[in-house]
């Protein structure tokens, strides 16, 4: 996910032609979609009751993802007060 976020910016800065970027982006998107779907399918078959663990894992990922933004917000507030 992180690489796919910055790939268009890097491609543009490097002067990559749009036609080539579009081709590689479409191929990468299809491979990503098939890969993630296949991984979910096979892991779901391999781990019985995996759906019971899914919600806590998603909640954990969301919390870990939000922590940097919250810390940055409070650091900015503290810096503004001083």
* Tally of separate helices: 3
Alpha carbon gap, first and last residue? 37 Å
* Average pLDDT number: 90
The global form is flat
CA radius of gyration is 19 Å
Judged by helices, strands and strand pairing, the structural class is mainly alpha
Please summarize the sheet with the most strands.
Answer: none
Tell me the fraction of residues in β-strands, as a range: under 5%
Oligomeric status of the shown chains? single chain
Work out the count of structural domains: 2
Residue runs with pLDDT of under 50 for 5 or more positions: none
The run of helices and strands is: HHH
Helix percent reads over 70%
Quantity of strands, as a count: 0
Characterize the structure shown:
This protein is mostly helical and 82 residues long. The protein folds into two domains: 1-46; 49-82. The chain is built from three helices and no strands. The longest helix is centred in the C-terminal third of the chain and has 31 residues, at 51-81. The chain is flat and about 50 Å long. The protein starts with a helix and ends with a helix.
List strands and helices in order, with pairings:
Layout: H1 2-13, H2 18-46, H3 51-81
Descriptive key words:
single chain; 82 residues; 88% helix
Question: In brief, what are we looking at here?
Answer:
With 82 residues, the protein is mostly helical. Helix content is 88%, strand content 0%.
């Amino acid at each position: 996910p992180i690489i796919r976020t910055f790939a268009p910016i890097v491609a543009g800065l490097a002067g990559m032609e749009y036609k080539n970027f579009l081709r590689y982006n479409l191929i990468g998107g299809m491979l990503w979609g098939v890969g993630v779907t296949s991984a979910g399918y096979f892991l779901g078959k391999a781990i019985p009751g995996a759906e019971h663990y899914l919600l806590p894992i998603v909640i954990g990922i969301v919390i870990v993802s939000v922590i940097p933004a919250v810390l940055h917000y409070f650091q900015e507030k503290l810096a503004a007060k001083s």
